Amino acid sequence: MTLGEVRPNEDALIDRARAGDRAAFTELVRLHQDEVFTLATRLVGDRELAADVSQEALIRAWRAMPKFRGDAKFSTWLHRIVVNAAWTQRRRQRRHTTSPISEVYQEPVALEAGPMDLATVSAMRPRLLEALRQLSPPVRVVVVLKDVYDWPHREIAEHLGITITAAKVRLHRGRKHLHELLWDELGGAD
Amino acid sequence: MNTSMNRAESLKCKAIRGLGPDIADSDRLPVSLADHGASCLRCQAEVARYRKLRRELGHLAEDAIAAPERVAAAVELAVAAMPQTEPAKPTAKVVATAAGAAAAAASVVAVALWRRSRAVA
Fold it and tell me: What angle, 0 to 180 degrees and rounded to 10, lies between the N-to-C axes of helices B2-23 and B31-39?
């Protein structure tokens, strides 16, 4: 199931969950947990943290279900909650850790590719993921949201509490850094 | 003459390098740099690298990493332990539709009563 894909019966499940049906919400969790976890992993760069962020995001989603009005797709709405949860998690990490945040976010993450993924994974994928993890968290979040999930700058800025210009500057820096890190994989010498 | 031309061209190379990360968003170079971009192999390579990077990042959206089992289990437990969420309130659209339907029904009844009273008279 690819990200953002609408599943059969999802609308019915959403209606029931909005009305307080826990079983329906559990079913929605089952359907969306992988995409939530994937986004969380891309944002925080660490499996354990990503699992915590996913849990928190899904619990927040349950609390907010009555407010879901269907203006955006359910998966888009869920993605926004994941971004907020990841940001909260980052703030907590900064408060409670004595090690530099860059170290906390640079632990290796194994790429778990399913059979379908393996067919499409390019040769540079592992290096790309490693390079992404080397970006500073504020820069990585913007690169992931813009270049991977295609969020508009305005929405990125709103969610991160920064200006649109700051979001663009971070994206510029992030791409430039990735370009340097992946020089050989991208084609190398001029 | 040649020196000043070379200098101008190298400034354009610099400009394209400066724009590099932003060029990935567009299929075209700015008009002022398009001619240079079309003839400079170094700049073409630069632009191609950024576009490739953008494409590769975009492909990451197709990935799905399996969530650890503990995620769904913990969410299920937490949701079960939480008090029932307040059921969704009807949206403004639903309220407006219901009000419209009630008004229409009331007019039908009013017209029917008026006709009956005239028939009796």
Answer: 110
Residue numbers in A near B54 (CB within 8 A):
147, 175
State pTM to two decimals: 0.73
Q: Report pLDDT for B3.
A: 64
Please write the tens of the pLDDT for every residue from B55-114: 999 999 888 999 999 999 999 999 999 876 665 555 555 556 667 777 777 777 778 888
Instruction: Kindly determine whether residue B85 and residue A63, on different chains, have CB atoms separated by under 8 Å.
Output: yes
Indicate the Cα dihedral angle A11, A12, A15, A20, nearest 10°: -130
Write down the domain spans for chain A. 1-109, 111-190
CATH 1.10.1740.10 fits domain A1-109: yes
Angstrom CA distances, A9 to A6, A21, A25, A59, stand at: 9, 15, 12, 21
CATH 1.10.10.10 fits A111-190, yes or no: yes
A36 in contact with B, Cβ within 8 Å: yes
Query: Angle B93-B97-B100 (CA atoms, 0-180°, nearest 5)?
Result: 140
Has residue A6 got a pLDDT over 80?
no
Residue B43 CB partners (closer than 8 Å, separation 6+) = B12, B13, B16, B17, B33, B36, B37
Which DSSP symbol is given to A152?
Answer: -
Nearest CA in chain A to B87: A19
pLDDT at B26: 79
A70: left (phi over 0), alpha (psi -120 to 50) or beta: left
Sorted by sequence, the CB contacts under 8 Å of residue A57 that are 6+ apart come out as A36, A40, A78, A81, A82, A84, A85, A86
